[in-house]
């Protein structure tokens, strides 16, 4: 697993990325780090990194329809080698809730904990 101590990342699925980014930055003291609205925005407050994913984002596309509602949020874990992690977890008998989905920010797959809570395993795109 990759060690990223700078932030704790949480993904929220939203229906309007710009409205969500405006809400968090205007009302709750978040700072806009990046935006690719209407698909995605990244805001931070302290060590919390909130990934705001609209319906067109790869994060939302990876989500099963029954989980794509408010409250269908998930923790976001980053890996250097997503394929190796998929092999390791699959070898342990775990079942994934989505296929690998690729987008401009990287690749991801969803796993569920025993209670059904989603965990996003993510490998960032390599930037030149």
Automatic annotation (TrEMBL):
Signal sequence, start to end: none
Every VOC domain range: 6-124
Pfam family, one: Glyoxalase
Protein name from the UniProt record: VOC family protein
């Amino acid at each position: 697993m990759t060690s990223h101590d700078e932030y704790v990342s949480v993904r929220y699925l939203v229906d309007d990325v710009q409205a969500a980014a405006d809400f968090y930055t205007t009302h709750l003291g978040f700072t806009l780090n990046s935006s690719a609205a209407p698909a995605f925005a990244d805001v931070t407050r302290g060590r919390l990194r909130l990934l705001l994913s609209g319906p067109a984002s790869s994060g939302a596309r990876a989500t099963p329809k029954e989980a794509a509602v408010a409250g269908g949020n998930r923790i976001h874990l980053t890996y250097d080698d997503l394929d190796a992690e998929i092999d390791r977890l699959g070898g342990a008998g775990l079942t994934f809730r989505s296929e690998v989905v690729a987008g401009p920010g990287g690749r991801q797959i969803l796993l569920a904990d025993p209670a059904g809570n989603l965990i996003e395993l993510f490998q960032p795109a390599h930037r030149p």
